């Protein structure tokens, strides 16, 4: 796709975006950001391991929705065929993913710029990166339409066990720790790396790796 002449390349990009429901994703982004601006300060009550319930601002969970929308766009009606695509298609897929994550981050930062301090903006961007990585892991494991599984699972520990016995937010609670908290940024880096590796491990690459391991094993046994 990237090696095609200009007009053909543009047409290929348009077809790719249509097949991957770009318009629907854009509408989803707009709705999520609008909810963030209008209702971001509303507090959500969740069951809590201590007494009572935990109250988490809605805006702290907004990045989860953006991440799932963004990564879910990798899926299409021809998903099984795309898994066997060549390097050109894979470069387009990665370019679209990076672009979509960047747009999500820009929309999130723009929506919060006049509503929240910079520390909160960093907290939300960090959460976006973590949930994008987890969504990529989910998509590779269960299919891109199920990229929401791992991000949604994290809501339980983040809301039920978020506070320790001393009444402090736990070090891994990326939805409440300050935007400058280094351990949570470490989680973000690890999540993005894991998601990137999972995305690169397409079925045909896994099969090729298995064949290479078998050949090396037979070669070692022969010697």
Automatic annotation (TrEMBL):
Domain of life according to the entry: Bacteria
UniProt keyword annotations, A-Z: Membrane, Transmembrane, Transmembrane helix
Residues annotated as transmembrane: 21-42, 62-82, 94-115, 121-139, 146-163, 183-204
This protein's name: Uncharacterized protein
Organism (species): Streptomyces puniciscabiei
Transmembrane is among the record's keywords: yes
Entry annotated with the keyword Transmembrane helix: yes
